[in-house]
Amino acid sequence: MNSSMISIHEIATSVSEAIETRHSIREYLPDSVPDEILQKVFHKALRTPSWKNSQPWKIHIVSGEKRNQLSKELVKAAYESTPRPETNWPESYPSDAKKRMFDLGMKIYEMAGIERKDKEARNQFMLRNFEFFGAPTAVFITSKFDLNYYVGIDLGCFLQSVLLLAREEGLGTCAQAALSSFPDVVKNSLGLPTEEKVILGLSIGYPKPDSNLNRFHTPRESAEELIRFY
Ligand SMILES: Cc1cc2nc3c(=O)[nH]c(=O)nc-3n(C[C@H](O)[C@H](O)[C@H](O)COP(=O)(O)O)c2cc1C
Q1: Per-residue pLDDT averaged across 64-90, rounded?
Q2: Ligand 1 centre from 160 Cα, in Å?
Q3: Does ligand 1 have an atom closer than 6 angstroms to the CB of 214?
Q4: Closest ligand 1 atom to Cα of 108
Q5: Confidence class of residue 7 from pLDDT cuts 50, 70 and 90?
Q6: For a designed S-S bond to 150, which of 51, 56, 181, 211 qualifies (C-beta 3.0 to 4.6 A apart)?
Q7: pLDDT digits over 14-55, tens only?
Q8: Which of 25, 213, 222 minimizes the C-alpha distance to 107?
Q9: Measured from the CB, is residue 23 less than 6 Å from ligand 1?
């Protein structure tokens, strides 16, 4: 199956199609996602495997007025302060990864029509993270577990389940570490206990069809480079 054969606006009918056609969506239609569709996605995702079946996740699905209010509070926090994640954001990367990350940023700005040197426009675009890129629903993945490598793997597996199941419902998604920037704001808004850590968020909704930004597919390193058979 060639990923060019099916678009993000169609429903993926196999795991292969979902993997090949999923990409991050950063412009959405305002149309809300019916509750039963969200329930289908997240209930199925609970089948995700985890270390000794520990299931370190809690999922908070935020739509409507609550979503709008939380978005406002997150944008305000981003204007007034710097990120204060409780998840140890990584600080160093190998040089080849740094290049991929730089290229990603440049390409996204180009697709969004933002001049590389226009710092204000870049900042404004960054703030779109906290508007959930216009998606009608935001999701926060939290955990009460002590964070370690394997909890991270479990949560990553959960995330991928959600991203792929969303494709099966014709939905677009964008995983967002940015949504862990202000955990206190999220906890206050959703009434979560202090010990529940805000690990990651994602935007979910119907992709805007005529969006230049959504047309962008990130490249991958070659299989020859990354996979070795013995
Ligand atoms: C753990 C994780 C955190 C991410 N955080 C953000 C984010 O904060 N903002 C954003 O726009 N994209 C974010 N992304 C999306 C990545 O940039 C994207 O998955 C990557 O560039 C590959 O592109 P693709 O998803 O279109 O295939 C995140 C992805 C993952 C898996």
Answers
A1: 97
A2: 12
A3: no
A4: 11
A5: confident
A6: 51
A7: 999 999 999 999 999 999 999 999 999 999 999 999 999 999
A8: 213
A9: yes
As a whole-number percent, the residues of the chain with pLDDT over 90 amount to 93
Q: What is the mean pLDDT of residues 7-16?
A: 88
| pLDDT tens string 206-227 | 999 999 999 989 999 999 999 9
Query: Total structural domains in the chain?
Result: 1
Q: How far is the CA of 60 from the CAs of 40, 70, 142, 200, in angstroms?
A: 15, 12, 8, 11
State the DSSP string of 88-105: -------HHHHHHHHHHH
Q: What mean pLDDT do residues 116-122 have?
A: 93
CA of residue 23 to ligand 1 center, whole Å: 9
**Cβ of 177 below 6 Å from ligand 1:** yes
The residue segments making up the domain with residue 18 are 3-212
Beta bridge partners of 176: 201
Question: In angstroms, what is the C-alpha Rg of the chain?
Answer: 18
Residue nearest atom 13 of ligand 1, based on CA coordinates: 176
Residue 226 forms part of a structural domain: no
CATH code: domain of residue 113 = 3.40.109.10
Which residues have C-beta within 8 Å of that of residue 100, sequence separation ≥ 6? none
Residue among 57, 174, 218 whose CB has most ligand 1 atoms within 8 A, to mutate: 174
Assigned domain for 147 exists: yes
- Phi then psi for 168, rounded to 5 degrees? -70, -20
Instruction: Please tell me the distance between residue 75's alpha carbon and the centre of ligand 1 in angstroms.
Output: 19
**pLDDT at residue 122 tops 50:** yes
